[in-house]
Amino acid sequence: MPDPGSHSYDVRRTRLRAEYDDRGVPDQHADEAANERLEREHPARPLGDPGRAAGPQGTRGTSRGDPSIDQPPRPVAAELELRSAAFSDHTIVPDRYSRVGDDISPPLEWTRVPDGTEELALVVEDPDAPGGTFTHWVVTNIPPDARGAGEGELPPGGVPGRNDFGELGWGGPQPPVGDDAHRYFFRLYAVDRPLGLGEGATAEDVRAAAKDHTLARGNLVGLFAR
């Protein structure tokens, strides 16, 4: 049975939510119903359960030397609220934002930026890509008073980094046909100093520069399959 936080658990949750949507259940109640059903189907295992996969909550290991992408973030002082008008957390990203659609970035907005923030940085990655974690978007130098990004736009003042397509800016989802839905982790970092990164920075650059300087972090997960 899939464990909470695992890929198969996320996919099951999305399918259940879609079933409730098809029945006309309002979004909030559909989320609650899907969560309650999953809790009944897959109750949490006790700590130390030998049947649990390695890692927090049975999460899968990751590649490219970044164990954080597929695991819960390390505790920080606060949590940003990151959301999109185009999709909810752990729901399907519309085709429009994919590589096979219009390939434009989805709209984002955030709140609860803590005092003392000097810069915001955004990273979007797919830990389920066949070759290992794949970077789809990096944006640095976002001013602390920015509160979002419009569809197909950088956050105001943001500087584009390089994605794993080898391009600057957004590169939308393009998982292999027939794969289970891949997860796309949108992560916004609030840091207490300028990161000093320019155009073309990578996700690894952001994590290295933000280490020990992250005041808060926001997380949003989108799913996509072909």
TrEMBL record:
Region (Disordered): 1-74
Lineage: Bacteria, Bacillati, Actinomycetota, Actinomycetes, Pseudonocardiales
Classification via Pfam families: PBP (PF01161)
Alphabetized InterPro entries for the sequence: PEBP, PEBP-like_sf, YbhB_YbcL/LppC-like
Biased composition (Basic and acidic residues): 9-44
Organism expressing this protein natively: Prauserella shujinwangii
Stored SUPFAM superfamilies: PEBP-like (SSF49777)
Protein name: PBP family phospholipid-binding protein
Entry similarity comment: Belongs to the UPF0098 family.
Highest taxon in the source lineage: Bacteria
